[in-house]
């Protein structure tokens, strides 16, 4: 794949342009904004649609194809929060609580980055395996738990493990993805066809609306960049590249296709801003939200959406020859 061509194609895609329009609206202080109910409805639709489609596809997957990708996904769930924590502590000199809070976000997954990577893969003829949504659910929870474990060893006053696990497992990302996968798998491809027009044909349009709203939210966070400092800005770009490279390499080793390896790389490179903030707010209430939200939503998400995803696909193409 021609990297410059892929970058240009990605930057001109409707979902990236909608995100840029949202950022512009926020910077110009336009009163545009989605009602909270519509934003939540779009989130539920997108996550459930991914799960249903992945579950229907899972029926075609054999265990021989799935076990190695599942294993490396769990390995990523261990390695990414640990590497993020060590970089934040050793190079950034952050305190343990804030380093663990940020590491939880960078170990977990941004479902929207995953969706954007899937859309990019389909547009470029490398859609990835049908069971990829299952890997999202596998990566989400363990990474948050690992990061919070690091903080809990040192910190006092954190919430109980039962509360944290309940928050992670019942949060919208994991609950809707796992629920959708289960429904799609039980129903099977034949029954899924009855609802396919609603959950597949309308998916891209809903995604454009969702990215417009996320652009507005991210644009408002840009004003906080001066407060988080140059180190965290560099961290928000360099660490996704490191994790993305690791994800692509492990995905290729596990036997995933070009699209599957690149999407796994994008998952590893992403930073959660839905499940992780909820868990961190509960377990580490003293952590500074400006640091972890600005880094994940204001820096890493726009980077992955515009430049990161095409780069991970280009790396996957190189590794697959």
Q: By helix and strand content, what is the structural category?
A: mainly alpha
Strand tally, please?
0
Number of helices: 15
Can you tell me the overall shape?
globular
Average pLDDT score:
83
Question: What integer value in Å does the Rg equal?
Answer: 18 Å
Largest sheet: none
Q: What's the helical proportion of residues?
A: over 70%
Extract low-pLDDT stretches.
none
What proportion of the residues form beta strands (DSSP E)? under 5%
For this entry, give a set of tags.
single chain; 321 residues; mainly alpha; 0% strand
Describe this entry's structure for a reader:
- The protein is mostly helical.
- Helices cover 81% and strands 0% of the residues.
- The chain contains 15 helices and no strands.
- It has helices at residues 3-11, 14-27, 36-58, 63-90, 96-107, 111-123, 132-154, 161-170, 172-192, 196-201, 203-221, 225-253, 258-269, 275-283, 289-319.
- Helix 4 (63-90) packs antiparallel against helix 5 (96-107) and helix 8 (161-170) runs antiparallel to helix 14 (275-283).
- The longest helix has 31 residues, at 289-319.
- 52% of the residues are buried.
- The model has no long low-confidence stretch (mean pLDDT 83).
Q: Summary?
A:
By secondary structure, this protein is mainly α. It has 15 helices and no strands.
